[in-house]
Amino acid sequence: MCNSVQVLQEEIRRLLRQKNAVLLAHYYQREEVQEIADFLGDSLALSMSAAKTEANVIVFAGVHFMAESAAILCPDKTVLLPRLEAGCPLADTITAEELEAARKQYPDAAVVTYINSSAAVKAQSDIICTSANAVRVVNSVKNAKRILMVPDGNLARYAARFTDREIIPWKGFCPVHHYVTPEEVRAVKARHPGARFAAHPECAEEVLALADFVGSTTGIIRYARETPSKEIIIGTERGVMYQLRLQNPNKTFILASERLLCETMRSITLEDIRDSLEETKHVITVPAGIAARAKKALDRMLEIS
């Protein structure tokens, strides 16, 4: 590792101790960020872990909606997002105003909202889901004729395969996963004929049809550890490859597509994290009314998880 990287990592660890802070990092972050994180994982699990700590400050190496979730679940802590413009293209495919209009269009539908959404959208929702529990959440909704599932249409169509509920999918998608093509996957499978293919449910239906396993990022990590296959094709953002290789040194991991790169996740650098700690920037807050309503939707999910 480059000495300058080590110096920055050591400086960040010193600042975290000094400020009584913890560093949360999503699996899609740069390797050098993952290496020094106090908590590493998916977005909701990270926020829940942070809520249990005695830290005063949470530095979230992730994107904006993740920091908002941390602020909602940890109202007594200061939540910092190292790069303010680190947003989520999927979360941006729906606004609170658009969801309000959709609720009027489908008055008999309950709204199940993916965690990859803004706090304002969560506040307009009946219940939240993750990629890991989407099917369970959908099946838990009993008091509505049908379900409006936002904002990821691919996740909604995937969940619909495992329920008899009528699901209305939103038009949104994650460009990192959605633009992976079945042709790309078939080409990789042809080069590695014995490999298993693990895909994220944000991928398109045609790609998921080729998968041996479909699951969340954490689910893919678990599958890679448990499958006897020595070669696994990975259909999610490339940042997870670091943990996969670290935990499974005797296995080979191949990206399903070179498109699997989230530039906004990768935009956060060690310098950004250091500056965020030194200058207490950028503080993420959620208005009290929105936070209270969003937390109710989150709590409904947690009750069945």
SSE blueprint and pairings:
Layout (H helix, E strand, L loop, with lengths): L2 H16 L2 E6 L4 H4 L4 E3 L1 H9 L5 E5 L2 H10 L4 E3 L15 H10 L3 E6 L4 H5 L3 E3 L4 H7 L5 E5 L2 H8 L5 E4 L5 H4 L3 H10 L4 E4 L5 H4 L4 E2 L2 H10 L4 E5 L4 H8 L4 E4 L7 H4 L3 H10 L8 H17 L1
Helix pairs in contact: 1-15, 3-4, 12-13
What this model shows, in words?
The chain is α/β, with parallel strands linked by helices. It folds into three domains: 106 residues, 3-Layer(aba) Sandwich (Rossmann fold), CATH 3.40.50; 83 residues, 3-Layer(aba) Sandwich (Rossmann fold); 79 residues, Rossmann fold (3-Layer(aba) Sandwich), CATH 3.40.50. Helix content is 45%, strand content 16%. Strands 2-1-3-4 form a four-stranded parallel β-sheet, with helices on both faces. The protein has a four-stranded parallel β-sheet with strand order 6-5-7-8, with helices on both faces. A four-stranded parallel β-sheet has the order 10-9-11-12, covered by helices on one side. Helix 11 links the parallel strand 9 and strand 10. The protein starts with a helix and ends with a helix.
Quick summary:
The protein is of the alpha/beta class and 305 residues long.
